[in-house]
Design goal:
alpha/beta, Purple Acid Phosphatase, chain A, domain 2, 7-stranded mixed beta sheet, 6-stranded mixed beta sheet, 9 helices, 19% helix
């Protein structure tokens, strides 16, 4: 994607980068994960770390039980003043994460709301980085340190940063699955056309090679086990859009066999109601895929400090809500006591707390076999 196209809100200041030691990014006040019933979940993606981030205060003031950071929590590879990408090093990664750690807006959120996180390309370390990224081990450690991952965590031992947790009592169990779409990803296939031709926004084309990898074998085996766990609601989060596949940017549509494999796994799992979440695209929308086997919804929220209306206006044949291209985050409210059975309400929320659009679905309308 072309970073120069970003629409950046008023920037009050640009913080000067300072090289800092690794341990300094750990010194944050963080909220521990909830232990009771989950009823409110916020999520978002794409935030420049060197500008004010007042939307984090709006998120926290909605009092969610969890905030899911779905990628590009920082732009580690981008010089905001010069508007150019640059090569990262371990020291520059530490420097950029330190800038976020020192942000009063981020501190306001993370001290009040429990956070779970995965990464996308820019907080992984490079806008084109995948499995061959030379700093992947260093980046993983810095990332997990920043988000206070315990030293003895299984996540520390695995090859990627994928994660899953179940919250709530036996009859109100919510599973959060965070996918890692970077650590094992092959380079997408380039289209045989100029970028932007034919109405496309990206330079990629679907790669139907059976060996084309997005999640990798280890993550697929882990995911299959997670999907067998009985829960009342399952939320699967990806840094990139899963259902929308027409922009030809970073998206699951570039790996159609991996995308189908995910849908089939969900369909063949415990048949728990399942919601997909995604980010990356600098606007918000809801996509719905209906087939004879399943009905899936992908709720996308992106653009915490910057948005892109050109991306928002791109064709998406699956879109049922949106697009909303102002600063935004996603909000999920779970009503366990709904008269018609448990339900969720999905809301795209702007910087001032206004609801841009809303969609309500009963659990039995999510990913059920027809």
């Amino acid at each position: 994607m072309k970073l120069a196209q970003f629409i950046i809100p008023v920037i009050a200041f640009i913080m000067q980068p300072i090289i800092v030691p690794a341990q300094s990014i750990d010194d944050q006040s963080v909220k521990t994960l909830p232990t009771g019933t989950i009823t409110r979940i916020a999520f978002g993606s794409c935030a420049f770390q060197s500008v004010p981030q007042p939307i984090f205060r709006t998120v926290a003031n909605r009092k969610p039980d969890l905030y899911l950071s779905l990628g590009d929590a920082i732009y580690a590879d981008y010089d905001l003043k010069k508007k150019i990408p640059y090569d990262v090093t371990r020291q520059t990664l530490l420097r950029e994460w330190k800038i976020l750690a020192d942000s009063p807006d981020w501190q306001y959120l993370s001290s009040r709301v429990a956070v779970m996180a995965t990464w996308d390309n820019h907080d992984y370390g490079h806008y084109q980085a995948g499995e061959a990224f030379s700093l992947k081990k260093e980046s993983k450690k810095i990332f997990l340190d920043f988000f206070s991952e315990p030293d003895n965590s299984i996540r520390r031992q695995s090859a990627g940063i994928y994660d899953a947790k179940i919250f709530g009592p036996d009859n109100k169990r919510v599973q959060i699955i965070l996918l890692d779409t970077r650590s094992f990803k092959m380079l997408p296939k380039l289209a045989q056309r100029p970028e932007g031709s034919g109405g496309s926004l990206g330079k990629f084309t679907p790669n139907s090679d059976p060996d084309a990898r997005l999640l990798g074998d280890a993550q697929w085996k882990w995911l299959e086990k997670e999907l067998k766990k009985p829960v009342q609601l399952r939320i699967i989060a990806s840094s990139t859009q899963i259902i929308a596949d027409q922009k030809h940017m970073d998206e699951w549509g570039n790996f159609p066999l991996e995308r189908k494999k995910l849908f089939d796994l969900i369909n063949n799992s415990f048949n728990s109601p399942t919601l997909l979440l995604s980010g990356n695209v600098h606007f918000s929308e809801i996509s719905e895929l209906k087939t004879k086997d399943y009905n899936l919804i992908d709720f996308t929220s992106s653009g915490l400090t910057h948005t892109n209306d050109t991306y928002a206006q791109a064709t998406n044949k699956y879109r049922i809500k949106g697009p909303f291209s102002d600063l935004n985050f996603g909000f999920i409210e779970i009503d366990w006591e709904d008269d018609n059975g448990p339900s969720i309400t999905l809301q795209a929320i702007g910087l001032d707390g206004t609801v841009a659009y809303s969609l309500k679905k009963n659990f039995n309308a999510l990913s059920m076999v027809k």
